[in-house]
Fold these 2 entries.
Entry 1:
Amino acid sequence: MRNKLRLCSVIAMLAIMTFAFAGGAAEKQETKLRFIDVSPSPTRQEYFTNTFEKFKQETGISVVYESVPWDDAANKLTVLGASNQLPDVMTTWAGWLGQFTEAGWVVPLSDYIGSTKDEYASTVTELVWKAEQELYGNIYTIPDGMMVKGVFVRKDWAKEVGLDLDMKKGWTYAEYFDAVYKLTDPSKNRYGTSFRGSRGAFDPLFVYLESLNGGSAYAADGSSLMKNQEAVDAYKKWMGLYLDGCAPKDAINWGFVEMVDNFCGGLTGTLINDSEVTATALANMKDEQWMVMPMPRSDKDGKIYNTVNSPYAYSISSSSKNKDAAWKLIEFLTRPDNNIEYCKLTGLIPIKTAVGDDPFYGPNGPYAAFVQQLNDPAMVVPVAFGPFNYTDMHQGMMHEEMQKYLLGRQDAQTSLFNVVNELEKRMKAYLAENPGSAVEQPKGLL
Amino acid sequence: MGILALYIIGVAAACALGMMFIRRHTKGRPTTYSNLSARRKAEPYLFLLPTMLLLLLMFGYPLINSFIMAFQNYKLTAPSKIRFNGLENFQKLFSETDIWLIIKNSFIYVVVSVSGQFLLGMTLAMALNKQFPFRGLYQALVFLPWSFSAFVIGLMHRWSFNGEYGVVNDLLMKLHLIGSKIAWLGTPGFSLAVVIMAMIWMGIPFFAIMILAALQSIPADVYEASYIDGCGPIRRFTKITLPYIKPTVIITILLRTIWIFNSFDLIVVITNGGPANYSQTLPSYMYTKAFASYDFGLASALGVLLMTVLILYVTLFLKATNYNKAGNFS
Amino acid sequence: MKPYTLQRHLGNFGRTVILLVFLLLVILPIYWMFITSFKTNAEIINAQQITYFPREITTENYVQLFKLYDYKGMLTNSLVVSVSTGLCITLLSILGGYGLARYTFKGKDAMLLFFLVTQMIPGILVIIPLYVIFAKLGMINTRLSLFFFYLITNLPFCVITMRSFFERIPYTLEEAAYVDGCSKLTTLVRIVLPVMFPGIVAVFVFAFIGAWNELIAGTIFINTADLWTIPVGLKSLIGKYDVKWGVLMAGGVCALLPTAIMFAFMQKFVVEGLTAGAVKE
């Protein structure tokens, strides 16, 4: 029958087609660990595959290196989490922890850490872990390396306009604003700052506002400390950088890429960013062109308010079936010798005290400004947005309200209060739903 | 290998079922006209069986699931609190402050992109309809925009239209068309225009190919007859060309509208909906909000809304263009 | 005859202008991509001066693309998935399109509406349930999962398109064959398909490109970098802080070549189809 013939040929075709893929199928899982890297690059891939080889030789456990481009990483982890297919060890960005802990996708690590706590640098124990315990009730990540913000400055431009910038002395916010205005020179097509207007724009502004409140954002009952005239004035001052032309008009929609590209490309004079960017700067600019200044000190109390976090901290997922083996892997990766090799490759600061005095991180190296801040007793880590899930705000209203003000659609007070009101609402709701929890406090290294 | 076996068994089972179905209707009966028609009746179903099976299997569950989730308080972060909440998700949707701006953007985005692609694609197809030297090479080049991944096109546009180091501003200034740099991606209105330009650039080849294929199947003697009758070019276009390609045009516009309406990758890459939601459309809004807030109830509600709008559009469009009557020449 | 030839000349002139304009529209961005791929990174991000021809031609981007980023692997994956998707879809849509074009049957309109509805569902709402199903079947991180996904997402459109191509072929062609004693299958293969060939090639190309360009499913269903398709691999060049523009452009240019070749071939077959199977009433 012709129908039979036809159908058989269809089956045959499809079968042949599908057999063609047998070669790409994943092998059956034995005691293999899955590790996912959320910011892959050839360097990282090479480093991890080599390290996993070493790990296998030592322990006999093999590890599969999975990766997803950074831009899609959050979405991929969401899909994996929703289907309970998360890899054993995940590299996580601190901003996701609120969601992950709420959804129960990460495993507390305090028991695993146990007494080895003392091996970790004080930046880890006093800053990162204390914050996690306050926010989420437990420790969930082992940092891969520390990074801290700094202000990248065009040394050559500063000299031209007569600015005297000394890394060891630092500067206040007033001096910082002044420098930005001085560095702006439209005739030379120079702008003072790589102003961030798109996603993440609110982060440095929030830190600036917190510097007026000793690093806090909320009172003990959850109400916001930023609903006053002082905050509105500071808000206007910050936004003035854009409105007064210290940044190109385009910057209202700039993300990380544009900020860094424009600084390295010679358009802007300053750039507030994490130490990770040092690698890019080293690759694209000559030494005499740039330097790093520490974050500005608060005009109010003279302290440096700076966020400290690890970009791709290791965590164990709740879907993991080999949690003990996963912990072994994390231990291996954070062994001092492995860790410092990793940090040098990726532009981070090592997490274990056993690192000693490696000249790479010494006072004359490219990371001097960052290390200096970490060792500075006057540095305080301000509080995060909160223990609740704020990703939707981070992807939307936080920078959208700023943009509305910059476009002249709203006045400063409305723009600021819209955001802090929402934060306040969520904070109060969190405190109400979790009796016994308290508002996070700023942390210092003392 | 297990899944392979499963899949082959599945397809084989489906086909076996199909064959049994025919067998039952024709077994043991002499080949009379009525039997022939029974077999004939089954044929279309057979032709479409593999397709329908695949689509039902793969789309059925997500469709139903999404529809249910739209009316639930479905947050990934609170799996224990899943419950029905009626129209709450839809209310939340419409209480977003910028929702009407987003809807307006969606509308502008779709209408301008589709019209632009259609008109330019049609022009290109008509220009290509005649032989000329190096036509093959030309065609290989001019259809290339369709073969780019959306994010590559998006990235190129984001870079080229950058107010400071973008090549567009540089060119425009060098040609003395503008006096000072335009902040393309930072100005409301302009940012949406850039996205629309990218979408049109990407979609012209699609229309051009479809219309060209349709144009090239118009019988040559019909045109010859019109020449002999002394038809002017415009008359020829409206009375002969258009009716012949009408079915293709309708289908192409329909599908392309659906795709563009649902697309968000260009927007997310080029402007991320900014500034201040001035280039945000419903799908890009859904993409960022769904994943960011882990609120799949809300995302599904938006999805259901989008589908409803599209279904309405399809039915109205098909009715208005008399699709079922068009293209009957045999 | 004079006004006629004038009209002809004007028409030709107009046509040439149009063709040139479109060529420019397409060529300029591609030219930009091309030369960027030969620039050094410092020259690319130099904000003070934009160069229209590389000051210093370098092949380091291409070297990096192939050595560091394993472009060959990405290319293989993309080709395997796209070709098989294209073939399978073409086959299924020939069957489906023919069924829809030549028959009226109960449920036909519902079927059509269903096809259209599948195109309306936002992608993310489909990907997550599918991920769960694929995971249960152990298909995650295989090219098979991509094949399936591209198959179902491109199938409705291709079936509908094929149907519209079939509809343009008058039934008289087949009737003549039946009268001569051909069976349905033979008619389909020997008579209808050759006339349909331009349409079939067009559908194959669309299906191929639909699979070639897809990004989201590629990131979600594939875990390890050795199975990345080209779009996913290129996306990994976008880091948190910097974009490797040069390598990205090089990757984009390389990804064009297979499709450009396909378009050239498609054109050849379409023309052949036109001259060989012209339908004379």
Entry 2:
Amino acid sequence: MFEQLQQLTGASDPAVAARAEMALQIAEAYSRQELSESEYKELMLDLVRTDKLDEECSDLEAKTMLVTAVYAVAQVV
Amino acid sequence: MKKILLIGLITVSVSGCSTVKGWIPSFWDDNQSAKIIDIRKAAEDIDCKQPQLPQVKKVQDQIVWFQLYSESKGWRQQDVLKIVSPMKETVDDWAKRSADKEGSVTYCELKKKTVQGQAKRAAEAVLGRF
């Protein structure tokens, strides 16, 4: 698991790389027994939540871009 | 031009208002913009050497304010509500744990990093609106 996460930290998508980096830090802290099992599970669940948040942000940004484009076209026409 | 308007009108008629509603984003709001930065600041200020609960409560309160304001503003705010919802869940779990028995310093540092990242991404989207 550590090796796979290590590889993903070099992913071209910065969001994937950041998420892998965070997962690696959590997994390493758990292996060093600096986290309890429930803390470990909660922090991993937070990564899933972060993915959801990122998805919603990208959706809003795409819609905003569309509105901006429509507005720009309306100004020209 | 008339053709484009006609196509647009037909599209709206056929697909229905609910689809169009889903395509219209929320627009710039001064209060939401300021509050999302308050959330970021509260997350940045967390010191894991200090008791966690009062600090986490501060972040939680700012998120609740954002949610209540956005809900009160109307249906078009669903997009920003969907953005803050995962952050609220993240912080709620932290507050619940801290109220029962404070988490470890490592837990606090990793949790802080997560909330900082979430708040930064949310702020980019909220402040980037038209």
